[in-house]
Amino acid sequence: MSRTRESVAAVIKAYDIRGVVGESIDASFMFEAGAAYAAILRGEGETTLAIGHDMRPSSPELAGAFARGAVSQGLDVVALGLTSTDELYFASGELDVAGAMFTASHNPAQYNGIKLCRSGARPVSQESGLAEITTMLVDGVPDYDGAPGVVTERDVLGDYGAHLRGLVDLSGIRPLVVAVDAANGMGGLTVPAVFEGLPLDIRPLYFELDGTFPNHEANPLDPKNLVDLQKFVVEEGADLGLAFDGDADRCFVIDEAGEPVSPSAVTAIVAERYLAQQPGATVIHNLITSRAVPEIIEENGGTPVRTRVGHSFIKARMAETGAVFGGEHSAHYYFTEFFNADSGILAAMHVLAALGNQDAPLSAMMADYERYVASGEINSTVEDQSAATEAVLQAFAGRTESIDRLDGVTVELAGTKAWFNVRASNTEPLLRLNVEAETAAEVDALVAEILGIIRS
Questions:
Q1: Where are the alpha helices (DSSP H) in 140-251?
Q2: What is the architecture of the domain spanning 263-343+355-369?
Q3: Phi, psi (degrees; rounded to nearest 5) at 366
Q4: Cα 83 to Cα 96: distance, rounded to the nearest angstrom
Q5: Distances in Å between the alpha carbon of 302 and those of 68, 317, 335?
Q6: Among 58, 59, 105, 343, which one carries the catalytic annotation?
Q7: Which residue, among 247, 194, 266, 205, has the nearest Cα to 52 in the 3D structure?
Q8: What are the pLDDT digits (tens) for 373-410?
């Protein structure tokens, strides 16, 4: 597989490495990527790298090649085998070693890739290692003439489950029936291990590990992939449903009536729980979460901090501000007590604790947190994203309360609580639109107007 800077850059994204197996990535690519990352880590004084992988058919071979590359550069490897992404972060934090998770998350079966972290589960992005790996993959990894590293196998699933149970006490809640759609992903392994011994009646859906995703895509952000769970929750008479993505680091919540609970509402309720224990604490939210999130943080005596979209930005701000928790619109939830890393199942445990410590159904309990109507993220293929964005701003000139450019452009409209954000994709010719307002009619009207400009 020949490599140019352009072909490598197409695979090494803003926050991770991802591509089609056999076309843009293969075992030889991963061997050299492992060697490159190991060379960087060795130069920083690191000695060990933990490697885990998901259930995709290509994952064991690619993870093994990466491990051989790392060992060739003198790094020791802890091979974790099958893990979820947040389990890999746990291992990185608990063992204080760098990590590499082989997964393509919610992407289809033909994709695979790597999420990298430094010791303590610290994030790796273009600015903190990925650009350097790109250069080495094009120009060559520096020679190393020292002794090779060694590979040891370690299973951390039990320790991971015990750690999570120690963070959220579910032992005294009322018994709950919980429907869980693992989407044939890693949740099928981690959910039983974490929930073992708790007063939860787990009703499993698609728990068989199968990286070909025979039932539906492992992407709960797409509403069509929630349909099976929504029906299952009602059929089983469950108190709530949980939907995980392929590597089980994201979790979506379904109420007892089969209706989705917005990730913003989950962010708000988890924030409220932390602020009850740590008054005045800081909570991170990205700029696409609902306006309700900073409102509720402030109402509970906390300090909201708004960030760009993306885990590397949120994790960096968590560390900078000492925030106790952070939430994204995409159902990534970050916890200081989990090494500033994200864990969908830990967020789900907070929802279970809140629900199980009172008697109301989930739909009633969450009503206070669902204050506005949101469009969800709407993508448009646009070649000149900058020109389209400026055309939108010109169309709304005179109607704006404020405009900021923290991530794309966010426009607050005068005389209303409506706002919208337009931002370009980091990797594709897409513009992403999010709109929120007090009524569905306002949202629909704004979406129609803005898309009319973007797509014209």
A1: 157-167, 187-195, 227-236
A2: 3-Layer(aba) Sandwich (3.40)
A3: -85, -10
A4: 17
A5: 47, 16, 15
A6: 105
A7: 247
A8: 999 999 999 989 999 999 999 999 999 999 999 999 99
Output the six-digit token pair for 243. Answer: 């939907």
Helix (H) or strand (E) holding 316: helix 311-321
Please list, residue by residue across 289-322, b when 16 or more beta carbons sit within 10 angstroms of its beta carbon and e when fewer do.
Answer: bbbbbbbbbeebebebbbbbbbbbbbbbbbeebe
CA distance 191 to 335: 19
CB 374 within 8 A of CB 267: no
- Sign for the CA dihedral angle at 253, 172, 284, 183 comes to negative
Tell me how far apart the alpha carbons of residues 271 and 297 are, in angstroms, rounded to a whole number: 7
Those residues with Cβ within 8 angstroms of residue 171's Cβ, 6 or more apart along the chain or in another chain: 198, 199
Place of tokens 């760009």: 308
Alpha carbon distance 434, 264 (integer Å): 13
Q: What is the pLDDT of residues 48-95, one digit of tens each?
A: 999 999 999 999 999 999 999 999 999 999 999 999 999 999 999 999
Token pair 């704006």 is found at 400
Task: Considering the domain delimited by 5-155, tell me its CATH architecture.
Answer: 3-Layer(aba) Sandwich (3.40)
**Strands ordered across the beta sheet of 282-286:** 303-307, 282-286, 325-327, 333-335, 341-342
Q: Is 456 a catalytic residue?
A: no
Q: What is the pTM of this model?
A: 0.95
Domain boundaries for CATH 3.30.310.50 within the chain: 373-454
- Given phi > 0 = left and psi -120 to 50 = alpha, else beta, which region is 120? left
CA atoms within 13 A on the CB side of 123: 20
373-454 topology per CATH: TATA-Binding Protein (3.30.310)
Task: Tell me which CATH code domain 159-257 carries.
Answer: 3.40.120.10
